[in-house]
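Suppose you are handed only these lines of text.
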Amino acid sequence: MILKGNPVSPGVALGEAFLYQVPVYEVLESYVEKGSERKYMDSLELALYKANSELEDLMAALMESEPDKAKIFAAHREILGDEEILEMLKEAVEEEGKHPDFAVKSVFDKFIELIGNVKDPLIAARTADLKDVCNRLLRILKGEKEKNLSSLPENSIVVAKDLLPSDTATIDRAHVAGIITEAGGAASHTAIIARGYRIPAVAGVDKVLEIIEDGTTLVLDALTGEITVSPDEKKKKAAVLKAEDFKNQKAEAEKFESKPAVTADGIKVEIGINIGTDKFCVPFENYDFVGLFRTEFLYMESNHLPTEEEQLESYKRVLEQAKGKPVTLRTLDIGGDKTLSYMQLPKEGNPFLGNRALRLCFKHTDLFETQLRAALRASAFGPLQIMFPMVGSIEDIRRAKAAVLAVKEQLRREKQSFNENTGVGVMIEIPAAAVIADLVAEEVDFASVGTNDLAQYLCAADRMNPETAVYYQSMSPAMLRVLGTIFEAFHRKGKPVSVCGELAGDPEAAVLLAGLGLRKFSMSESGIAQIKAVLAGINTEKARETALICKQLCTEKEVKEYLAENTPC
Ligand code: PEP
Ligand code: MG
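From them, the structure of the protein bound to magnesium ion can be written out as follows.
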């Protein structure tokens, strides 16, 4: 059987399906027979013991490589050993005669409610841990094996409805061969992380969880978007050859990876990297700057709001690793598809058009101030610049800049060191800001274009929804005209402008971006080699003519056809 989806991270894989669903356990009110309470208490104690040893194993596996994540499981063990919880569980089974799973559910629910009502976000964050531990116990009581993505069987192709960014961030990279999801488009965060980790991925496969069974052999062709379920020997062999071929092509491009990016006519292009963690390990020669540090992953991987000191440490680590190369720190961009387990975000009908990113920071001034303090203090340790996401107007820019000034004043009063000249810039990803790019350029030190959101808002097509993927056109003449306007406005003012959306790492778009005048591309590490290889074959004068012609075409399809037939070397 062949299934079709959108290829969102290139590669070819042959492996076994690993079906992943966050389980929801339904627990009914039920009581044990009188006189059998002790027997049921024994099975609850056994479940507690098993949960504890599962957590021990998880901690041991993560301690070396990812000590921060190991800490989460250490906290879960503390919950399991909590005297009050154990006492209440015992009472529920032995005295009230509750069935063990009903006892677990009612005791944990009580604690979750109690703690969830506490105002302090650090304490309220514990509810996510309590829910997790409760789920673990219920699963063990039901006799089911543990399923998460941090420890996968070899050669697993993860099949899921959708993956949370935190699922993808903690995925077992040594054993995952590919990802298939029902939801998500090329600009979803799952896709971005998959590309960052170089995991072949296909998104938008309808009803995939109903069609594919756990353990089924699959060929995942994330070059065409085709998935073969239970392939015959011939198909398997062909997949192995295609994967080999893809690897060789990549190896060819990789010859360019550590060289400076220069076009065929000798124009230097700066290459930036997009990172989501302070543990990135991109070779120093491969890039010129960190064009996008998505700080929200620090928040998403933690079980509490990161403190000022925790953030400072993380930002310093990034600066240290970048060894003097400029780092663009983007302030918290949460909301839309990115949530925090410990923070209640407003329930909105259109979250991508709601209070996300900078708007949310304006509402939570403490959170915003803490991040700005950490960022500015980090600026004393290396060339850091601050960038605001989701800027829609000059008011937004002025309000964000005022927050920076206020924090600088605080730090001065406290005699804390920071760089007074820290650059302040914005992401241009809302069309309203793009159209007035000339005015934006007056207000800021630099800008970076977020083409993922810009295309979503310009085309009014949800970047996550496979059903609207055909309307999401990041190379349409409309996009090209808007991009041209932004680049020209910034160049006229002599201010730096880059692109850090996925378009910058798309080899098909490189000619257009270079032709529209872009000289700073920022992308996931996996795109660097190929973009440098493509740029090396481009003549910028001819690319300029190509971009001019494409701006005058009528449709994205025409643009792509024109590019396929006319390589401006
Ligand atoms: C963008 O919108 O292009 C961007 C880089 O930001 P994110 O993908 O994190 O929304
Ligand atoms: Mg964005």
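What can we learn from it? The two ends are 42 Å apart (CA to CA). Residues 292, 294, 333, 429, 450-453, 500-501 surround phosphoenolpyruvate (ligand 1) (CB under 6 Å).
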